[in-house]
Amino acid sequence: MMRPSIVTACPAETRELGRALGQVVPPGTLIALVGGLGAGKTCFAKGLAEGLGVPPDVPVTSPTFTLVNVYPGRVPFVHADLYRVAGENDLESLGLFDAAGEDAVIAVEWADAQPALLFEAGLTVRFEVLSESRRALFFLGLWTRAPRSAKAPSIFRFPERRGHTMSLIVQKYGGTSVGDLVRIQKVARRVADTYDKGHDLVVVLSAMSGVTDHLLQMAEVITDTPDRRELDVLVATGEQQTVALLAIALKNLGYKAQSLLGFQAEIKTDSSWSNARIVTINPDRMKALLAQKTIVIVAGFQGVDPKGNVTTLGRGGSDTSAVAVAAAVGADVCEIYTDVKGVYTADPNVVPKARMLKTVTHDVMLEMADHGAKVLQIRSVEFAKKFNVPVHVRSSFCEEEGTMIVSENQDMERTVVAGVTSSKKEARVTITKVPDQPGVASKLFAAVAEIGVSVDMIIQNTRSGNLTDITFTVPRADYKRTLEVVKKVASAIGAESVAGDENIATVSITGVGMRTNRGVAAKMFETLAENGVNIMMISTSEIRITCAIEEKFADQATRALHTAFGLDE
Fold it and tell me: What is the sign, positive or negative, of the torsion defined by CA atoms of 396, 399, 400, 401?
C-alpha cells in the first residue's frame, strides 16, 4: 500500500494544506481532486482559494450544482465539480479553461469521473477517510510529496488551537437565525468556517422562531392552567430539535460535532418552573469533547434541577445559557448571533436615526436590558459582568463586526447618555390606606416574591392618620397573578383597596457619564413635558433614570429623548 503524503487530523488542517499549496502552485495548473463524499475535497479547495489570493469577503462554495465557479485572485481560480456530469468529456468540451483563461489554476472535484482529465492533470490529490475527522492525502504528479516552499508556511505547522491567535469561542444563535432548515445549514457553514480558522467551539442554540409559542399554545388548548413542571418538559423540546439538526448538518459537512441537552451539559438550576436560575455548570463533559476537537452544541434555555427535573430559564434564556457556558469553560469570547447588527442607541424600529454602538460596558448593558432593550436577556449580562466574559453581539446574516460588551476601563469614553430604552410590558398595582407600621411592606413584597414575580419601581405616599399608599410596577405578564396575591395580603393587613393599570410603559436613559454630569434629570423631565408626556413614577440608579408613563406615549417619548440627548445619527 502506498504511504500517504500527509495525514490531517481535522478539517482545519486539510484547509491549511490547501492554502499552502495555493501559495506555490504554478499558474495554469490543473489539479484533480479524487475521493468520496465527505472526504475533504471542498475543504481543501477553500484553502487553495485562500492561497491563490481569493479575497476573504468572496465566499467559496461547492460547485456541485453550478458545475464551475470562477473566483478572482492573485491567480484566477476555477473550482469545478464533475459529480453530475454524464459521459466522457475532455478539457475542451467542458470549457474549464474558457472560464478564466489559460493562467487560471483549476481544481476539479470528482475528476476520476472523467478519466481523460487524470492524464492531463499537473497534480492529483487523492483523499481517503481514516476516521470521522482524520484524512489521508496522496499527492501524485508535479510533487511526489506534499509541497514545501520558503515562501509558504510549512504545511505541517497547523494552528495551535489554544495558542496565540486561536481562541475558545462560544457562539449563540437565536430563533430567527435557526428559523428553518436552510438557515440551520447556513449556521453550520458559519460554525465550520470558525472551526477551520483553528478555534475551539461551543455552540448554544435557541428553538426555531415561533416553535416555543406554538408549544405553549398547544398546552393552553388543553387547559388554561397547564402544570408548570410539564410545561417546562414540553417547551424544552424546541431546542432539542435545533441542536440535533445542527449536529447532523455539521457531520454531513465532514466535521466532528455532538449535541448536548441541558442536563447532559450539566447545567444545574433551581426549581423555579419557567423561570429557573442557573446555580452551577459542570464543564467537564464539554471540555472533554473540546479536547477531542469536537464542536460541542448545547441546547440553550434549559437545565436540570436538584431532583433531576427539566427546567427552563424564561424568555431569552438561551442568552443566559451561552454566557454561563462561556464562563464555565473559560471561553475567550461569547458571540451572540441575532437578527440585528448589534446594540443600538434605541430600538431602530422606533427611532429610525438610532445608531449602532461599537462598545458598551457591562453596567450600561445591564441597565438597558433591564429596562426594555431586547437584544440581550438581563441575566446573561449579569453573568457576563460577574465572570468578566466579553460578549460580542452581532448579526447572523452578515459578516460585519457588531457591539462588544466589556468591563469598564479608564480609556473608555464616558458618554452622558449611551442609549434610550422603553418597555411596553409593564403594569402598575396600587394599595391604598395601608397601615403605616413596621413589617407591613415586608409582608406585601414577600408574598409577591413567593410567586416568583420581580418588582421594579416602588413609591410610598404618606397619608394622615398613620396610613400610606403603596404603588409598584411588575411585568405585565405577571399582573393578574400579582393582583390576586396582593388582594389577599391587603385584606389581611387591613388596607382599604387594591387597584391596577395595565396600560403602563417605562422610558429610560442610561450612560456612565451621568455619574459626573449635572442637569441630566432636569433635561429628561423637561423634554417629556414639552411633548405632553405625564410622569407617573420615577426610579433612578447611578447611571440610569426611568419614568413610568402612559403606554400610548412610549414611542414618542423615546424619539424625543433620543434627539434631546444628541444621539440621532
Answer: positive
pTM of the model: 0.63
Tens-level pLDDT at each residue, the chain (569 residues)? 344 568 888 888 899 899 988 988 888 888 989 988 888 999 999 999 999 999 988 888 888 777 788 888 888 899 988 876 655 555 455 555 555 567 789 999 888 777 766 666 778 888 988 888 888 888 876 443 333 332 333 332 333 333 333 589 999 999 989 999 999 999 999 999 888 888 899 999 999 999 999 999 999 999 988 999 999 999 999 999 999 999 999 999 889 999 999 999 999 999 999 889 999 999 999 999 999 999 999 999 999 999 999 999 988 889 999 999 999 999 989 999 988 888 899 998 899 999 988 888 888 888 888 887 777 878 888 888 888 888 999 887 777 888 898 887 644 556 788 899 999 889 999 999 999 889 999 999 999 999 889 898 898 888 877 899 999 999 988 999 999 999 999 999 999 999 999 889 999 999 888 877 888 999 999 999 999 999 999 988 888 999 999 999 999 999 999 999 999 86
Report the distance separating Cα 439 and Cα 458, nearest Å.
16
Place of cell 410590558: 425
